Please model this.
Amino acid sequence: MAIQEKSKEKRQRHLAPRDLSILTLVMQQRAIRLDQVPHFMTLLETTSGTMHAAHAKSTAHNLIERLQREGLLHLHHFGKGQSWIWLTKEGLHVLGSSASWKRPARSAFPLLDAANSVRLHLIQRNPQGTWRSQQQLRNAETENSFSQLPTAELLTDTGERMAIHVVLRLTGTDEQIAARMCQQFERKTSSGTPYYTALWYYASNDAAKRLRHARARVADITTKEQARNIHIFSYPLQQQFLYRGHRSPVRALAWSEDGQCLASVGEELHIWEASTGKEQFRLSPPASSSIVGWSCDGGWIGLLLNLSPWQVTTLLAYQRYLVLHINEEQRCKERDVTQDAQGGDEKEAYQQLLALSVGDLLEEGQYRMVSALFPDTFEAKTGADALHHLLSTLDLDRPGSTTAR
Model:
């Protein structure tokens, strides 16, 4: 028995800092996909400063094989080229952890995979940030009194603390989800300031929709400002794209509420499809602007045009005509002329003219019939022409001239 303990102590003393870093990482994440190990090692080297060159895959795999031979890591092949590693009981003991050892359940691997991908994504973008996994939070004495733990916490170099939630499926009603969001904001530091600066959710499409509904309820329960500190991102993580097309500096950017589109404004206004980088729409405003935004329901450039998403989509996709102006004096004059008219078409057209309001959308046949008989009574344009006209009425150079809906 004494010989075995002495052997373990000897082996622990000979573990290199890199070995301990990898073992600690695996303990924090519970399990890691083998092909992700080189990426994690590169990040560990970058943040610790102990190494200066990225590891090749073979170097990372050799390290894993050695730790596996020493009985500290378990390597499991699931097929389809997927291999995972997690700590053995001895590996957990070497790190001095008091946690009980438990093999990860097969059903847990999709969520573990997502958590690992999000950690890589965030640390690559915040190399000076500190990641605290759920396992670390659970083991920390200060977190024991807090019932709901996030997937992780990200502490930025500016002192902000983000609660990171990786969500593939949601349980509970929208009200219950909103209540859990509010509970996290209610947590305070010892000095009485909010514990979390923001909540970041990385969620599947179905989960993201429910989270957005819950966030809207948070705005009703607390404040819109607090709801704006709840950020919802799509998972799987989207590929990065280089958006090309601006011929002048970009002054402002704004994501649509569903994260599917990006609006950018310089000398021109561009709408991009986030998942492909494809330009969906382009307008040339009459003046340069540094103002851009979206309607609260995720519609098209509602800030600039003050149109609903349905109106803009209908204009562009179906070539409807948007009523921009009605000459009320002329419409009244047409009444006398129409009363003497013998044809039913003219009377029908006048009835449609009476029913018109600014902002109405007309089908092409309806527009042509009314405009042919009453050309000076109203103005309507279709498609991009209508949008250009609306933009021409905005004083985009004057700060505060437009407000978000």
User: Anything to note?
Assistant: The longest strand covers residues 73-79. Residues 316-392 form one domain.
